[in-house]
Design goal:
Rossmann fold, 18 helices, 18 strands, globular, binds GDP-alpha-D-glucose
Length: 502
């Protein structure tokens, strides 16, 4: 087993060297720790989702302040009079500062413009974006509110602001206009669509203007960078240099770079080996009757981009074609239901229920059901146990920036066993080429891939898993963070020199 090149310690060294005296400010919609009042006592939880899973280890190493929307019912009681709290609560390493939003603001900015307009706009999942002018106004106002907190937190000192995702596309420009010395970088965790798609957005110029307030803008893969550069080229009057992957606009430069996000491989590998996980595997096996079964697994935020109906159809088709596996293969679909206030998610919930009824209704026998659906926020130990129990894990995204579930499955399999079925439309497919890569829309091929996963000899499972583990071990979250921070800070320094044309 080779040691990973990038560790917490190497990240720490790089951050000290590159960031130096700059204060690091991370800004995101979602908070990394959420507080609830349970029977008069303050409890905290770690919300599920890819962004927090990736950035929290970075902040624990780097320190600084993370500014996010305080959405927990107990958050108000947890913070001090500056809306700050030290986190992680058990072993404080950095400051969390919370921004309060009214219900109306949350509706317009989060459920509205972010998740009913930008999310479907950026994912090729054939859900029509809803462009509501009131939502857009609220989105602008909330971005301004975040900017106010960021500038107050910085207080005129040298700082680097690292903004997360599509909820805060206007923030970098607001920061840049207020103080051009602040280094600004942003990571866009979802795909960037091509220009033909993006141009349906009525506020495309304002969004691009906001994002071009960044010294550096990161995407997961090169295709998303190319789409972004092409969109800017056709929309704005800035100059785009495709060779150097940068934009020169309003006298400023924005570097556009791919940084494939990842997971804390070593930590997941270590956690997966724990005795608690083994106990949980036994408990789950008893509770769900998994003994002697070939287990398939899906873990997702229940979202229409993740292709959950497509995988249920493929499981139905697999059992239809191979009835010898009835009673022998069981598929566990776990994951938390999200964004329930948005119509498209309510429709997805209905579609899932209907397919469950169809597939389970048709194939169930005795106490056995082909699909076990667990749509709740499961604790980490349960997710880990499920990953270890699963002969195969399915990631069937219709479109996905990266997909951390795929990498978490690989990192958990210290036994070097298990098969990953992976959509080519997830960024992860560019790295995890030893997965069974399958188009989720092609039900026939998808059903065949399930057969292949179930029947794959141990030797082949092992060699594919070893390859994938080497890739995730090497390209871990620390590498992502280190390369990104180096490019951000060095790029920003270069960009502040006079531009000599290109
Ligand atoms: C966005 C981009 C990109 C899921 N259910 C539960 C739970 N999870 C955890 C998973 C994983 C995370 O949520 C989901 O991460 P993904 O990467 O799959 O997806 P998004 O939330 O859509 O994230 C994505 C990511 O940002 C990072 O850049 O990869 O492409 O869409 O960590 O394990 N966690 C818990 N309970 C659950 O029930 N605790």
């Amino acid at each position: 087993m080779t040691a990973p090149t990038w560790t917490r310690e190497s990240l720490q060294r790089i951050v000290k060297r590159e960031i130096g005296d700059y204060r690091l400010i991370v800004v995101s919609n979602r908070q990394p720790y959420i507080h609830e009042m349970v029977e008069g006592r303050l409890r905290y939880a770690v919300p599920s989702g890819g962004v927090t899973a990736a950035i929290d280890p970075l902040m624990q190493e780097c320190g600084g302040t993370w500014i996010a929307y305080g959405g927990g019912k107990g958050d108000w009681y947890a913070v001090d009079d500056k809306n700050r709290i030290q986190v992680p609560p058990d072993d404080p390493a950095y400051t969390l500062r919370l921004v309060w939003l009214t219900e109306e603001e949350e509706r317009g900015y989060y459920y509205g413009f972010s998740n009913s307009a930008l999310w479907p706009l950026c994912h090729n999942a054939y859900t029509e974006p809803v462009f509501d002018a009131r939502d857009w106004e609220t989105y602008k106002a909330v971005n301004q509110e975040f900017a106010r907190h960021v500038l107050d937190e910085i207080g005129g000192r040298p700082a680097a602001v690292f903004t997360q995702d599509y909820h805060l596309a206007l923030l970098p420009r607001l920061i840049r206009d207020a103080d051009p010395d602040i280094i600004t970088g942003q990571f866009w965790h979802i795909p960037w669509p091509n220009h033909e798609i993006f141009r349906i957005c009525p506020w495309q110029d304002e969004l691009l203007d906001g994002l071009l307030g960044n010294d550096m803008l990161g995407f997961h893969i090169g295709d998303h960078c190319t789409n972004f550069l092409d969109t800017v080229d056709r929309t704005m009057d800035g100059q785009v240099d495709f060779d150097y992957s940068l934009v020169n606009y309003r006298g400023d430069r924005t570097l556009v770079r791919p940084f494939p996000i990842s997971v804390d491989f070593e930590q997941i590998d270590e956690d997966a080996r724990s005795g608690y996980v083994t106990e949980e595997m036994e408990r789950l096996s008893d509770e769900l009757n998994l003994g002697g079964m070939l287990v398939g697994l899906g873990i997702d935020r229940i979202d229409y981009t993740k292709g959950i109906p497509h995988r249920f159809r493929a499981i139905g088709r697999f059992l239809e074609k191979h009835p010898e596996y009835i009673g022998k293969v069981v598929f566990v679909q776990a994951g938390v239901f999200s964004r329930s206030e948005v119509d498209a998610y309510q429709q997805l919930a209905q579609q899932i229920d209907q397919l469950l009824e169809e597939v389970n209704g048709r194939f169930s026998q005795g106490g056995w059901r082909p699909i076990i659906y667990m749509p709740s926020d499961l604790p980490n130990v349960t997710l880990m146990a499920l990953r270890r129990l699963a002969r195969f894990c399915v990631v069937s995204s219709l479109h996905d920036g990266m997909n951390l579930v795929a990498k978490e499955y690989v990192a958990s399999r210290f036994d070097e066993d298990g098969v990953l079925i992976l959509s080519p439309f997830a960024g992860a497919a560019q790295e995890l080429t030893d997965a069974l890569i399958v188009n989720p829309y092609a039900t026939e091929g998808f059903a065949d891939a399930i057969l292949e996963a179930v029947e794959m000899p141990h030797e082949e499972r092992h060699s594919r898993m070893v390859q994938m583990r080497n890739i995730v071990r090497e390209n871990n979250i620390y590498k992502w963070a280190a390369l990104l921070l180096v490019d951000l800070v060095q790029g920003a320094r270069r960009a502040r020199r006079p531009v000599s044309g290109f």
